[in-house]
Amino acid sequence: MIAAEGWKWVQVAPEFPYGHAQGLRELDGTPTGLSAEEHASREALREEHEKLEAEHEDKDKIPEEIYDRLEEIERALEAFEDRPLIYDAPTLPALAS
Fold first, then answer.
1. Reported pTM
2. How far, in Å, CA of 33 to CA of 44, rounded?
3. Residues 15, 18, 22, 26: what is their CA dihedral angle, to the nearest 10 degrees?
4. Average pLDDT of the chain to the nearest whole number
5. Would 7 disulfide with which of 2, 40, 90, 94, CB 3.0-4.6 Å?
6. pLDDT tens, 50-74?
7. DSSP labels for the chain?
8. Residue 94 binned pLDDT confidence (cut-offs 50, 70, 90)
9. Nearest to 34, CA basis, from 43, 22, 21
10. What is the C-alpha separation between 33 and 84, in angstroms, rounded?
């Protein structure tokens, strides 16, 4: 995904030696938007989740298949929230001649 956006090199380091990170900056990404189909799917899942919860208000007496479906819907909804980020190409400062 990163190479497709034009990035050529990425290095991940959980820790840096003292002073190594001086002058580095954090890149802010923009979340990708949902397509119309994804948006409709997400809304349908939310409605189904709300309906199932309303039908089974007593959490101690939820049938196992309904409980499993609620968990499945929650995982699917979390996937909509965990979207890839789009990063603008970094701009480098102009070099003085």
1. 0.59
2. 17
3. 20
4. 84
5. 2
6. 999 888 887 778 889 999 999 999 9
7. -TGGGT-------S---TTTTTT--PPPPEEPPPPHHHHHHHHHHHHHHHHHHHHT--GGG--HHHHHHHHHHHHHHHHHHSPPEE-PPPPPPPPP-
8. low
9. 43
10. 9
